[in-house]
Every structure is written in C-alpha cells, then in structure tokens.
C-alpha cells in the first residue's frame, strides 16, 4: 500500500507543490526575530519518508531553516523521559489556550499560574528548565544530541545568527520567563533557561530532517529504518495529542478538520507532520498565514490529506 502511495506521490507532488506555491504571495515572512525575515517569501518544499527510507521530495526541500516551535515537541519528550509525567505536568497544563502563543494573560488570570500547555512559549520555556542537566550547556548538549539521534543526522547544529537575533530581540519571552520565575514555576536562573530555549529554537534542519524525526513519531517512538526504540510509546502518544490540540497555534481545530494529522509548525515556516504507521513529513514555506502557519504549506497538506484520505478522524 505504501509503495503505490509513494508512486502516486511521486507523480503528483511536483505539480501540486507548484500550485500551492502560487499562494505564497498572500503570506508574510516572520520579522519579529529580525534574522528570520531573510527567508524567501516564495520558498516551498516538502519531504515525505516511509518506513523503508524511501522518500519523495519536491520544491525547496533542501533549504535549511530553524526549527523554532517545532523543537518544543521534542524538548517536551526529553523532559518526560528525564522526569516522568507527574513532574512535568505539575508545572505545565494540558489544555489549549485560544490565546496567542506568546501571551501571558492566562498566567496572571488563571490559578495556579502555570502555562496552559507545553507548546505555547510559556510552556516550552518551562519545559526547557525541566530538561535534565546541571547547567545550560549540559541541557543544550543533551537536547542537540537527542535531536541528532531522532533525525539520524550527526551534523545537526545551530544557526548562530538566528540564535543571537532571537536572544537580542526576545523581550516578550524574557518577560514570560521572569513572570514564571515570580510564580515559582521556573526554579533555575531565568537567563540560563532562556538560553536553552533560544538554542533549541535555533537548531537548523531541512525538510528531510523533519521527516525523519516525524517518522519516529509515526512509528510510536521506534525509528522504523534502524529498528531502534528512541522514545517510549506513552510519551509519543502525549506529544501527538498536544500536536493535534495545540500544534498549529489557534488554527489547530481548523487543521484537524481540514488535514486531520498531528502536526507542529514554527514561525520559520516549517511544519512537521506524520501519517501514523506510514509517513514522516517535513515542510518549509516561510510565508505565514494570519494564524502563523506556513500558508502554502498548509494548502499543500490539505490537498494531500484529502487526496490520500489521511485524516485519522
Ligand atoms: N523562538 C520562537 C519564539 O519564541 C518560537 C515561536 C514559534 O515558532 O512559534 O518566539
């Protein structure tokens, strides 16, 4: 089944990608992290990988980009592997907010003042503080090592320019982090926690890296190509649930209706998604729609999901 799907994807994808690319002009490249604004408005790329390592790719799939919020899924998994569910969910909730991803309003208004979920910025900053390690360098080293393993790519590293750019302009994230420290949610030094957070957001990947990482989630934590179990199934289940309920910002409900797959997007225009038991998928399209997701990327995924009946709902 997956082979014939691959054949059909091979035949359809190049033309469909070009059709979706026509929509990039309606989106906007993120500029609040100045370095991200250097990305090309018209870029669109996709890489789809199956359990045998066969892949189909199209468009600008070789363009490197930073993971941004996509990294939050995997730092959550690492924190769960380090400390277990009870410790993590003592500090972070499990519900969507309906607010912007960088909002602090509910931290003040809703007792006990913990972030609503691990995929909004407040939640992910908290999770960064929970990753095991004695110092920020050790935490960052462990995160990068884990990501390299999942992507099966030892060369994965940071985009230092994006890291610096975000660190210099991240005033809102700084306020969130200090608020969390005030609420007793963050115990460590705030600047150290932010350094870990900004570092994992600046890990640079291509669509192929995202596809391979997604493939591990599609196979419940085991890399189907090497057979190695990298994540306990329970934590994959938790991550995929958050991706479904909060992974596409305040368009997660719409994405669930139109595409019906667990996914996580980032402000760089990346989307990581998966077809359970079948494919890992990485997408890049820096022009974002009003909800902050890659405009052309979502367009392409909607079309693919409908054609191949991928929605799990
Ligand atoms: N590093 C970004 C920030 O904190 C991530 C946001 C995102 O991709 O949604 O603003």
UniProtKB/TrEMBL annotation:
Keyword entries, A-Z: Acetylation, Hydrolase
GO BP field: glutamate biosynthetic process; L-glutamine catabolic process
Pfam families, sorted: Glutaminase (PF04960)
Keyword flag Hydrolase: yes
EC number from the UniProt entry: 3.5.1.2
InterPro entries: Beta-lactam/transpept-like (IPR012338), Glutaminase (IPR015868)
Molecular functions (GO terms): glutaminase activity
Reaction catalyzed: L-glutamine + H2O = L-glutamate + NH4(+)
Keyword ATP-binding tagged: no
Signal peptide coordinates: none
Binding locations of substrate: 69, 121, 166, 173, 197, 249, 267
Assembly and interaction partners: Homotetramer.
Family: Belongs to the glutaminase family.
Full protein name: Glutaminase
């Amino acid at each position: 089944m997956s082979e014939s799907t691959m054949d059909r994807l091979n035949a359809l994808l190049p033309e469909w990608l070009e059709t979706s690319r026509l929509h990039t002009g309606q989106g906007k490249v993120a500029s609040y992290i100045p370095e991200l604004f250097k990305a090309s408005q018209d870029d669109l790329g996709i890489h789809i990988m199956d359990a045998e390592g066969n892949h189909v790719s199209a468009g600008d799939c070789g363009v490197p980009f930073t993971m941004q919020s996509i990294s939050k899924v995997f730092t959550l998994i690492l924190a769960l592997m380090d400390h277990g569910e009870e410790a993590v969910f003592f500090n972070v909730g499990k519900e969507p907010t309906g607010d912007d991803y960088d909002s602090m309003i509910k931290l003040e208004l809703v007792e006990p003042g913990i972030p609503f979920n691990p995929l909004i910025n407040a939640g992910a900053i908290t999770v960064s503080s929970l990753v095991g390690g004695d110092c920020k360098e050790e935490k960052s080293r462990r995160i990068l090592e884990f990501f390299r393993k999942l992507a099966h790519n030892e060369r994965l590293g940071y985009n230092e320019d994006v890291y610096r750019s975000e660190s210099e302009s991240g005033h809102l994230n700084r306020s969130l982090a200090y608020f969390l420290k005030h609420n007793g949610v963050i115990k460590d030094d705030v600047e150290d926690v932010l350094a870990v957070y900004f570092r994992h957001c600046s890990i640079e990947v291509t669509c192929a890296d995202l596809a391979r990482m997604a493939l591990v989630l599609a196979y419940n934590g085991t890399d189907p190509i090497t057979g190695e179990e990298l994540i306990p199934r329970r934590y994959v289940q938790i991550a995929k649930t958050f991706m479904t309920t909060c992974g596409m910002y305040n368009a997660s409900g719409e994405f669930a209706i139109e595409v019906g797959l667990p996914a996580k997007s980032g402000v760089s225009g990346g989307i990581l998604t998966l077809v359970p038991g079948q494919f890992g998928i990485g997408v890049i399209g820096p022009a974002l729609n009003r909800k902050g997701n890659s405009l052309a990327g979502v367009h392409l995924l909607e079309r693919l999901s409908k054609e191949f009946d991928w929605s799990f709902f």
